[in-house]
Each structure stands twice: as structure tokens, then as C-alpha cells.
Amino acid sequence: MNRRHTLVLPHQVATQLRQHLFPGDGLEAAALLLCATAGQTRDKLLGREVIPVPHDACVRKPNVLTWPGEYVEAAVDRATQRGDVIIAVHSHPGGFYEFSYADDESDKVLMCALRHGTDQIAGSAIMIPDGALRARLYHDDHTATPVDLVMEIGPDLRCWWNEGATPNGPQRPPMAFTGAMRGWLSRLSVCVIGVSGTGSIVAEQLTRLGIGEIILIDFDKLEERNLNRILNSTVAEIGLDKVEMFAGAIRRYRPDCGVVPVTQSVATREAVLAACASDVLFSCVDTGEGRHIADRLSSFFAMPLFDVGVAIPTEPTADGGRRISEVYGRVDYVYPGGSSLMDRGVYDGALLEAEYLARVAPQAHAQKVADGYLRGVHEEAPGVITLNMRAASACVIEFLARVFPFRQFPNEARARAIFMLAEADEDVFAERQFAAGNRFPIAYGPTEPLLGLPDLGVKRRVA
Description:
Elements: E1 5-10, H1 11-21, E2 30-38, E3 43-52, E4 59-60, E5 65-66, H2 70-82, E6 85-91, H3 101-118, E7 122-127, E8 133-138, E9 144-146, E10 149-153, E11 157-161, H4 179-185, E12 189-193, H5 199-209, E13 213-217, H6 242-253, E14 258-262, H7 269-275, E15 280-283, H8 288-300, E16 305-316, E17 322-324, E18 328-334, H9 349-360, E19 374-375, H10 385-403, E20 416-420, E21 425-429
Parallel strand pairs: 1-3, 1-10, 6-7, 12-13, 12-15, 13-14, 15-16, 16-19
Antiparallel strand pairs: 2-3, 2-6, 4-5, 7-8, 8-9, 10-11, 16-17, 16-18, 18-20, 20-21
Helix pairs in contact: 2-3, 5-10
């Protein structure tokens, strides 16, 4: 996967831009987009603030726009405080999806002012009425480099690639479940946190669907008891790091796929910086702490997050035994600015505190029941691969549905899905049914302390 530059727009930022740039009068308009920077392997710009240029302060025509420099100065002052990159965005109401000669001439002056004012790269972008955005960056005063991918992260995942774009518009996503879909996915990077029961199945599906790069994060080693539910694992590989084992398998059947194994807990600096390079997060962990880190990653780095979990609660019977009361699978989709996993009650402060005590002071947590999959029943090697496959498949389908829409209803109506096999039922929850707590900053990038957690650099274990 050969990509240099990505621009990510949280849904709220993209909406604010669209509403300002297209007030309905058919005339051009302008705004300044302030972006945090992130990424070690490729440049990633995170749009976090829009400074609208008032319509009445501009000379606006259907194909021409001039606007005063005072708004550039205000953007430079604000960007300099945080080290942000400024991208000047204007609309093309007629739908022309190309930089015009007038745009090129304007950039010669404007980009010089932005670069010298902030001591950063600067960029310009155009937006057409359907919200598609095309951008370019200036590392010097004269030479523009296209932004390879502009991505809007919301109920749908909208991708606008520079490659394949024409003056008539961007390349449209292909139909889901086709061979062309594989080609589209080959340009994306994903991160799977937790490569065990559900995580190995999620990673397997994504790789075989054609994903271009996969980042695997897990600190644990393969044990004999894992063999009945971790895909690609063999007796010969017992004792190896799970991610190294799985990376080796991917390289055998998908040598064209970039694989980045990270043998660390997700609650480490190394893992966080590796994860944020991806386009999409998949959380396949079984701890509150792991989901808390994933929640923060989604917000701080403006990333879509798919979280999957399974459970088999049991209850006592009259004869002193136990029976299964239900068999659950859950998939949550989270995007920055929407409700978080914490808002939805997937984990809470009490669980985080309990896990912390279990880790640093086990004697203070003696009452914790370490049940694993079957709550109330101790099982070293539970036979749950069929349940895991059902849940993992539902998780990956949620991802596909948001990049290649195929449903007969809006994706916003399916922020969470819970299936219950004993009851033979499924409950679906819309985003509006959850209250967004705005707990974490959006698109702050790798500001210190990383993810707002002072001790993130301490290597600690999390399942």
C-alpha cells in the first residue's frame, strides 16, 4: 500500500464545511480548515476546526471568489498555538472536481502566506455539492502534492481517492461483495486490537477480503488451550507471539498484504502510535481497559471503531448444576463526535478500577470471577469458535456496509446490534438512542500526554 497523505474529516467537521460552503445560492464560498498531524509511516491530517470566512466579507460569484486576508491571519494565529496545518477550502458549486487555473494562481500567494505564517506545510482543497473533497499540499511555495485519500468518518465511511478522480467527480465505491470491492479495500489500512478468539477471525476475513495493510496488536503468546479457537494456529507454534504467528500465516496466503505485528499491550505508547496509522480500528478485546484505549484512539485520532464482544451467561439450576441462560454477540460502531463505548455502557469507571486492582493488587480483588466466555463456569478451552465466527462476521459486515452501502435503511440506524441465539432474536439500536458524553477531544492527534493518559508509556498488560 503506497500512500503518502491522508486527510480525515470527522462527521461534524465535514457537515460544518458543507453547510457553510453551500448556502444554497450557487456562489462560491470559503473556509479555513485547521488540522492536527499524525502518523509515523505516512502523513495523516486530522481536521479538527473550521474557521468560516463570512459570505458577506467575500466577493462571491459562481466561478470566482476573493476574500480578505484578515481571516487568514486569524487562522495562522490559532494554528501556530497548536502546530496545526491550515488547508484553505472553497466550493465549486457547479460540481467541477478539479483545481482551476484561478485556483492555481490564488495558491501561489495564499500558500506562501500560510506556510510562512505557521512554519508548516499548507494546503488547499475544493468541495463539490455532494460533499466530496479534493485536496493538495504544498511543502514549498510552488509545488503541490495531491492528498491521496480524503475520508469522512461518520455513520458512513466516505472515501474520496485522488487516483481515479476526474473533473466530473471522484471515483465511486464499487458494489459490495464484488471483485472490484477487493481492489478498493487494497488501498486501506486496518488495525485489529486483540488477535485471539474473535480477533483472529476478524483479521482473517479482512485479509482475505483484500485489505491492503493490517496492523495486529496483542501482547499474548499462543497456548495449547487457544488452538481450538484461534485461526491459523498449530501445535508447532505454541509459545510464539500470537501476532507473529498470525502475521506469518497472512504472509503465506497474502504476500501482497502489508502486515505490521505489534507484540505489545494496546495500552502502550508503541501500540497506540502503530494503531493510529491505520484508517479503521477493530477492537476485539475482552477488558474494559482495552476498550477504553480504543475509545480514546477513535476520538483523538478521528478513527472509525468497530467493537465486538460475546458472552454466554449461565445460571444455577434446581439440582445444583448450571445451565446457559443466553448466548450473546454484540457489535458496536463508534465514530468521533458520536456516542462512545463508555457512553453506551460497554465499560465504566468501576470496571476500569476493578481491572487495575486485579493487575496491581490481586489480593484486593479476590472476589472477581474470572469466568472467560462461560460466566459462572470455569473452562480452559471453551468450544466457542462458532459463536466467535458469527460475531466476527457481523463485525466485518458492519464495516463493509459503511464503506459500500447496500442496506435498505440508513447506517445511522444501526449503531449497535446484539444477537441472542437462545432467544433467536436480534436487537438493533440507532445512534440517536445513545447520549454522546463528549468525553474525549476529537482530532487532537499525538498531543502530549498521548491520548490524555500520563502513564501511557508504561508497559502494562491488557487482554
